[in-house]
Amino acid sequence: MFILLTSGARERYRQDVLRAIAQPKNTILQFPYERYLLSPAIAGRLANASQLVGLSCLFTYLDRSDRNKPPELIPCRMATLAAVIPHGHTVSLQLELGEYARAADPTKFTDEMRKMPGATVPDWVEGRPHPKGHFWFEVPRRDGSSQEQNEAQALWKKLEETLERSDDLGLWEKIVHQLASRTDFMKEPYFFSFRGMHQLGRYRLPSGALVTHELRPDHNGCYQVMPDVEYEVQLYHLLPKDANPAPDTFLEVGSGSNLVEFTTNPKLPIDSGYDLKRIRFRPGSPTRTLNTFLSVFGSSERAGTVVQWFDIPLGVSVKWWKNIIIGLLVGLPLAMPMILSTWLNDKLTVDMQCIVSAVALAAAGTTGVLAAFNFSKLQ
Asked: pTM for the full model?
C-alpha cells in the first residue's frame, strides 16, 4: 500500500485535501511531488513507473501545524494509481479515487504507522523549518528477509483493519469533522461532496418526486449523457458544528461547451450549515460525439476569490436519426434542379430519367447527411 501525504504548508496542498474528499468515486485527481519527498525505495522504482500503475494508495492529510507536537496523520480516501508521470525533479500522479477512509483515533494511527518498517512519516527535527521524512512511501516494505517481510505484513494488516472504509456520506462527515478541528481547516467556509449526476425522467411518483436515474462514470471517470435530456448535478455541503456560513460564498457549476445549457441557476449560495444543492443542465445535439466537461467552482464575492475545485468529464452522444433527417432536408433540395432538367429533357428515355433522378437524389442526400455530421459551427 502506498501512503500519499499532503499538508497545509501551501494553499494548493490544503486544497488538494478538500478536492480528494469532494470528487466523486472513480474520477481522477492529479497530484504532484518533488522527488526529494519520495522515499528512496519509491524513487528507485520510477525508472519503471508503468509497473506502479494499478497499485493501491491511501491519501492522507499530514497535520504539521503545531511544531510543539509530532505531525499527525489523518487518512481521507482510498485511491488507485492510474498513471505515474516523471518529469525532471518532479513526478505527477493521477489517482483514481475510491472509498473514503478514516482512522477513528488519528493519534494512535500515527503512532502505529511510525512503527511500520518502511514508514518514513515526517517528524520535526531541531534546526529544520520543515518536518523530516517522506510524503510518498510504501508499507509494508519490500526489502529484508522473508521473516521480516511477513512480520511487516502482519503489522500492516492489523493497522489496516483499524481503518473505516465506505462510500457512505456519514463517513465523509466524520472525516470532515476531523479536518475541521485542525488549524489548517478551522477557517474553511464550507466542505462539500459531489453526490452524483442524475438523469431526470418525464414522470413523477404519487408523492410528486420526479423519477430519476443515477449515472455512473465509466472507467475513465467520464459521465456519458444523451442530447436533449435534462440532468441534475447534486452537491452536498456541510459546515462544522457551530460555524456560521461565510457571507457571499457560493458553489457554482460551469461547462466547457456552449452546447451545455443550464436550466436552473448554476451558482448557488452557501447560506446554511448543511444542504443539498441541485443544478440542472441539458446538453444540446452535437453533430459528432462531444467530449467536454463540467467544472465545479467555489467563490467568495466579499473576498474576491474563486477556486476551481475540479472538472467532471462529460461525453455527449449523437442523435444519429436527427442528423440524418437534417442532412436529407438540407441535401434533397440540391437535387431538384438536376431532377427537373432531367424530366424536361425529352431526349432521355423514361428509364434513363428515373436512373438519373435516383442518382441525383442519392448524391444530394449523401452530401447533406455528411454535411450534417461535419458542421463545425454547430459545435
From this structure: 0.82
